[in-house]
Amino acid sequence: MSSIRLRLLCWVIPPVLLMNLLAGALAYMLAPPPLREAVLRTLVLLEMVFGLACVALVWFSVSNGLRPLNRLRAELNAREGDDLAPIAADQVPYELEPVVAALNELLAKVGEGAQARQAFLADVAHQLRTPLAGLKTQLEWLGVRHAGTETARPVGLMLSATERMIRQTNQLLALARAAPRHFEKTRLEPLALDALVADAVQSFVDQAARKDIDIGFDLAPAVIRGDRFLLRDLIDNLIDNAIRYTPPQGAVTVTVRPGLLTVEDNGPGIPPARREQVFHRYVRLDDKTEGSGLGLAIVRDIATVHGASLSISDPPGGQGALFSVKFR
């Protein structure tokens, strides 16, 4: 990779120095013999000073000319991975407008592709929900009808697989709905966060009981502006994640305070170095635990579109993980 500064120096400095040398040689030849030695010393000194001045001038001029590019690079580096908003063309020099226009065209194409993928995921997930729900109902009926027979175990395995498919389908739909580029602020409305959490916790009582986990909540009245369905997805994924990674006879506690939601467990916890990583898609810390690696990515996206901050810390007891969502 070549440097613009070095290329300009190679193009500009040699011809300038050559012309100065020719002019100096002519002055040396025209000077009287007694003065030629003094003229030579003066010419060498002037040549060195002039050469250094040319290098400094070229370096400074190019650096100053590249500042808009550096600002553009810093702006792009500061963006989130899903921020495909066009670059403001009125804030760049005229010479960079074609580059910015080309970048904006590329961002638009990428955005269209991402939107098509999100729409496809949402459509597929939505279309799968109804037949999967019907399949689950039929399998539950078969499980009751053939309880105690040799077909009970295969039916149970099919029911478990169907429940996993339903969960992953719901996660795909939540992921598509929570995409920041497709979120509509008009969907925000005043909601009772404590009531949402109370309803969500009740739906996890059976799942927690199967692992002998004590699930509880400590709720104070809290009203926030949000999307009811997305916030329920956020709460469900936080609780589901806590139950999945909490060992048997453990505890999960959900707390609501004004502007704050926390989910605490006493599982293995998350190392500080990996706490940011777990919010990326398909990242799982424990391959022995079932899951798709999408739950916490969904939580992150939903928190983002609600302007909330999301963090992981150690609980007061020191064992486990404490997820906190702070709403503005």
Q: What does the secondary structure layout of this molecule look like, with pairings?
A:
Elements: H1 4-30, H2 36-78, H3 97-145, H4 152-177, E1 189-192, H5 193-202, H6 205-210, E2 214-219, E3 223-226, H7 228-245, E4 251-257, E5 260-265, H8 295-305, E6 309-313, E7 321-326
Parallel strand pairs: 2-4
Antiparallel strand pairs: 1-3, 4-5, 5-7, 6-7
Offer a few descriptive terms.
single chain; 328 residues; alpha+beta; five-stranded mixed β-sheet; two-stranded antiparallel ribbon; elongated
What's the overall average pLDDT, rounded?
Answer: 79
Strand content: 5-15%
**Fraction of residues in H or I helices:** 55-70%
The CATH class label of the domain at 185-326 is Alpha Beta
Give, in spatial order, the strands making up the sheet with the most strands. Answer: 2-4-5-7-6
Silhouette: elongated
The CATH architecture name of the domain at 185-326 reads 2-Layer Sandwich
Query: In total, how many beta strands?
Result: 7
Our count of helices gives 8
Largest sheet: 5 strands, mixed
Brief summary:
This protein has eight helices and seven strands.
Word description of this protein:
- The chain is an alpha+beta fold.
- Among the domains are: 4-78; 185-326, Heat Shock Protein 90.
- Helix content is 58%, strand content 12%.
- It contains 8 helices and 7 strands; from the N terminus they run H-H-H-H-E-H-H-E-E-H-E-E-H-E-E.
- It has helices at residues 4-30, 36-78, 97-145, 152-177, 193-202, 205-210, 228-245, 295-305, and strands spanning 189-192, 214-219, 223-226, 251-257, 260-265, 309-313, 321-326.
- The strands form 2 sheets. The protein has a 5-stranded mixed β-sheet. The chain has a two-stranded antiparallel sheet with strand order 1-3.
- Helix 1 (4-30) runs antiparallel to helix 2, helix 3 (97-145) packs antiparallel against helix 4 and helix 5 packs across helix 7.
- The longest helix has 49 residues, at 97-145.
- It is elongated.
- The relative contact order is 0.07.
